[in-house]
Fold:
Amino acid sequence: MKPTGLMLLAAMIGCVSGQGWAREPNPNVPEGYRVLYSQDFESKDALKDFEFSDPTQWKLKKRNGNTALEFGGKCSYKPPVRSPRIIGLIGGQEFGSFVLEADLLQTGREYGHRDMCLFFGLTDPGKFYYVHIATKTDNHAHNIFIVKDSPRTKISTKTTQGVDWGKEQWHRIRLERDVDKGTIKVFYDDMSQPIMLAEDKSFPLGFIGFGSFDDTGMIDNIRIWGKKAEKTDRGFFVKK
Structure:
């Protein structure tokens, strides 16, 4: 994928140790939003923030001098309905309206459904939304989906032909969710134009997470803004 002028400008301003684009000092978030969660995985205790569908497939790994969260593709988790298997969610907080940014590195082989996923509105293993970012779009790839006690269903009103993950290439993603309006927007590298849009109000509150349907990848530099998050001690995969 050729870098846009905006991407090149960000790189010129300063790239953070080769991972993603430099973070702007004044992020474009709605009035009243504040940082509710951030994680750069440089602490050895970072994994304690997360709950995993299969903990054996997740670890902290240093790459190019930086530590990030890495997941494998041999997940033993079997969801109740057809949906992604590799899920690592931020525990202890449930989010309503939010803006999420993170850096993603896809480490798998190239094929049409080569993917990484963003999860949100997770209320239980059979109820949630996810964004599937893949090389090529079809009814089961590179779209926004809802899982509602039945196999995942596409709800996108807009998507693109797909993305070029490249090799050893980090990408900045942004996910915006407005619960009151029901809007969902997804950005990939270029923060001026969304690659996906959807509208749905089924799950107004839930966990946020990362992962894949069945591929491999890494996550770094997570930031989530919002007005507030609901604290919870309930588990998602393992009941607490």
Summary: The first strand starts at residue 34 and ends at 39. The chain has one domain: 37-230.
